[in-house]
Design a protein that fits this description.
about 80 residues, mainly alpha, 4 helices, about 55% helix, elongated
Length: about 80
């Protein structure tokens, strides 16, 4: 669950926290870059975001490598 959903940022000033947001459009962009012939559905993109969140390495965070990995897995399994 990201900080926006948990509202952990409430009560802090804007310069007292950070929060990265990944969207389905990030997923679509990654898929387009690496697989221009593949068109992911919204549900597939949402699944990729869920997998990123569930299985990411907390020491490394969520990165473009994480996004690329789960996008590849979704395309391979489709």
């Amino acid at each position: 669950m990201n900080c926006a959903k948990r509202k952990t940022h409430e009560g802090y000033k804007d310069d007292e926290y950070i929060c990265d947001v990944w969207t389905i459009y990030d997923v679509f962009e990654m898929a387009e870059m690496n697989h221009p012939d593949v068109k992911l559905s919204d549900d597939q993109a949402k699944n990729i975001l869920r997998m990123m969140q569930k299985y990411h390495n907390a020491e490394n965070g969520l990165t473009y490598d994480t996004l690329a990995y789960w996008t590849e897995q979704e395309i391979k399994d489709a």
